[in-house]
Amino acid sequence: MIVVQRVHVRWSAAGRGAPQANARRELNRPVALPAPLPEGGVVVHDVLADEAGGYVRRSDVLTGDVSIARNLNLWLTSDGPAVTVERLPGAAAFPPPGVSARLFTLAHGQVGRYRANFRFRFTQCACDPSWYYEDWVVHVSNGRVAHDRFLHGEPDHDVDNRVHLYGGPARRGNR
Description:
- Helix content is 4%, strand content 42%.
- By secondary structure, it is mainly beta.
């Protein structure tokens, strides 16, 4: 079983100021997994805190094969007991869309964390300058984990691709 949890926070351009940033500051933290987890080759726990919904967290649980991770712009590949996690190119305007990027390979029992933030256009039309922003924290486990595993302990692999969404140099690099 592969367990994926994405906690993401979404806000509008109007919500970029310091008071709004303070309101969403801790919302991108992992949460406890639903207990019991449903059966499946891949279980995805997707948690969203959206400005439009008053930052109340909503969550969905999906099960299936590795293809369900594509909904999170992730590509999972099993090679024996190991699982390789890649980021797929997405529709983000910033950072600029690119090619797939290998995030990490997890041995059985290992956990990886991927952090990123994005700026998206509301529409694909360049005539509409409206933006929204997302901050993601994604945990992936190669194997069944306790419902609080993503809350406690350090991951075996940690990739931090967060950038300044308003221009300027990168805030952090990969660790």
